[in-house]
Design a protein that fits this description.
Elements: E1 3-8, H1 15-25, E2 30-36, H2 47-57, E3 64-69, H3 73-80, E4 84-89, H4 92-108, E5 113-118, H5 128-136, H6 150-156
The structure holds 4'-phosphopantetheine.
4'-phosphopantetheine is lined by residues 7-9, 36, 38, 41, 72-74, 101, 104-105.
Length: 165
C-alpha cells in the first residue's frame, strides 16, 4: 500500500499510539499521522504541541511523518491523494464509535477505506485521558508515555519532570 493515514487527536500520543504507528508503517510505503480536531473532546494540548510531541516520538520511523488538519478527514484524504486510514481498536467499547465514523467517512468519500488494527495486549487498557489523570496527580506515567515527552506531559499539569511538583 502506498499512503496510509493514521488520524486521531493524540492528546497526547501514548505508547499505544506509537505501537500502532510502528506496526502500520511496516505495511505501507508512507504513513502519515494526522492530528485532527475531535469536536467531542476538549484538548489539553494545542495542535502545535501535539504535532511537535509526535514528531519527537516517531523520529526513528523513517517512513512515518506527522501533519495536522482542520476539517473533515474524508476531505483531507482527497486533498493528499490517500485512500485508506488505519485506526487502533482496544476493546469492544471502541467498536461502536469507530463503526459510526467509518460509515460516515465512506458516505462523505466513497473511495475511502477504514482499516482496523488490534491494539497490542499490553496497551489495550491505555488512553490519553486516563494517562492525563495519572499525570495530573503526580502518578508514574513512564509505562504509558514515550520517554521523549514525559516532561511535557507533567509540565502541562504544573509538575516537575518526574511528576513531583
Ligand atoms: O483519537 P480520536 O479522538 O478517537 O480521533 C477522532 C478523529 C480526530 C479521527 C475524528 O474525530 C475525526 O476524524 N475528526 C475530523 C472531523 C471529521 O472528519 N469528522 C467526521 C468523522 S465521522
Amino acid at each position: 500500500m502506498e499512503k496510509l493515514v493514521y488520524p486521531g487527536s493524540f492528546d497526547p500520543i501514548t505508547l499505544g499510539h506509537v505501537d500502532i504507528i510502528r506496526r502500520a508503517a511496516g505495511l505501507c510505503d508512507e504513513l502519515i499521522v494526522a492530528v485532527l480536531v475531535n469536536p467531542g473532546k476538549q484538548p489539553s494540548f494545542t495542535i502545535g504541541e501535539r504535532v511537535d510531541m509526535i514528531r519527537r516520538c516517531i523520529s526513528g520511523i523513517d517512513n512515518a511523518s506527522v501533519r495536522s488538519f482542520d476539517g473533515l478527514l474524508a476531505q483531507y484524504l482527497q486533498n493528499i491523494g490517500a485512500r485508506a486510514i488505519i485506526k487502533g481498536l482496544r476493546a469492544v467499547s471502541d467498536y461502536e464509535y469507530e463503526l459510526q465514523m467509518a460509515h460516515m467517512n465512506k458516505k462523505l468519500n466513497i473511495e475511502m477505506e477504514t482499516l482496523f488494527m488490534m491494539a497490542s495486549l499490553q496497551y489495550s487498557f491505555l488512553s490519553s485521558s486516563t494517562v492525563k489523570d495519572v499525570a495530573r496527580y503526580g502518578g508514574d506515567i513512564s509505562e504509558f508515555i514515550p520517554e521523549e515527552i514525559i516532561e511535557d506531559v507533567y509540565a502541562k499539569f504544573g509538575r516537575g519532570k518526574d511528576g513531583i511538583s
